[in-house]
Amino acid sequence: MPWTCPCGASNPDVNRFCGGCGKQIAETLIPTPPPARFPRWGIAFLILLGAVICVLLSLRVASGPSTSNNEQQADERANVTKAKYNSVQAGMSYDQVRELMGQPGEEISRSEIGGYVSVMYIWKNSDGSNMNALFQNGKLLNKAQFGLP
Ligand SMILES: [Zn+2]
Questions:
Q1: What is the 30 CA–ligand 1 centroid distance (Å)?
Q2: 85-128 pLDDT, tens per residue?
Q3: Fewer Cβ in 10 A, N or C end of the chain?
Q4: In terms of pTM, does the model score above 0.85?
């Protein structure tokens, strides 16, 4: 298309410069390009980044708080103290001891010899301190502790 320079000169399509004033066509008539749009890969990257953040947030919501709750509960349950150890007396049943300790013990051995059933339980703290108790036919026979607070 022929173009008209702001100076008033009419120029054929093939001219890159105005025949009247010599200005370059680019400076006079070619409209300024629209502002650069965000490149496609940039949009894709932002969507991906958003998705990753969403996943991280949902993971945090799903597992983060509940995990720390579980740890707190475990810490409370694992609160084996010397006071509790001292309150456990020979002759008590396992149920009584479990009540005093506030949690079931972990059975670590069981044997039956000559009609005597011997079961060893251990109550452990997360730091490794522990109490163990030997029950014979359901009655506490022996107890021992290691490093209880
Ligand atoms: Zn011109």
A1: 13
A2: 999 999 999 999 999 999 999 999 999 999 999 999 999 999 99
A3: N
A4: no
